[in-house]
């Protein structure tokens, strides 16, 4: 994702992941997401909580 100033996004075979340890919460990516799927960790909807752990695995992807 070109708008990320710290390159927190990592491409997995079937999704983009955001490494929460790299992300600086600048929100530059939020308006760029075509499916409105980016939330701060405190605001992730209940039905999407499982994605928090999946994003934490982002550091395992190149």
TrEMBL record:
Domain 4Fe-4S ferredoxin-type: 14-43
PROSITE patterns: 4FE4S_FER_1 (PS00198), 4FE4S_FER_2 (PS51379)
Any single Pfam family the record assigns to this protein: Fer4
InterPro entries in alphabetical order: 4Fe4S_Fe-S-bd, 4Fe4S_Fe_S_CS, 7Fe_ferredoxin, RnfB_subfamily
GO molecular function, one term: metal ion binding
Keywords: 4Fe-4S, Electron transport, Iron, Iron-sulfur, Metal-binding, Transport
Name of this protein: 4Fe-4S ferredoxin-type domain-containing protein
Native organism taxonomy: unclassified sequences, metagenomes, ecological metagenomes
């Amino acid at each position: 994702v070109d708008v990320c100033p710290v390159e927190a996004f990592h491409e997995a075979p079937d999704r983009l992941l955001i490494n929460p340890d790299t992300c600086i919460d600048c929100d530059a990516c939020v308006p760029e997401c075509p499916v409105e799927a980016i939330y701060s960790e405190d605001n992730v909807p209940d039905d999407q909580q499982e994605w928090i752990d999946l994003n934490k695995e982002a550091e395992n992807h190149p």
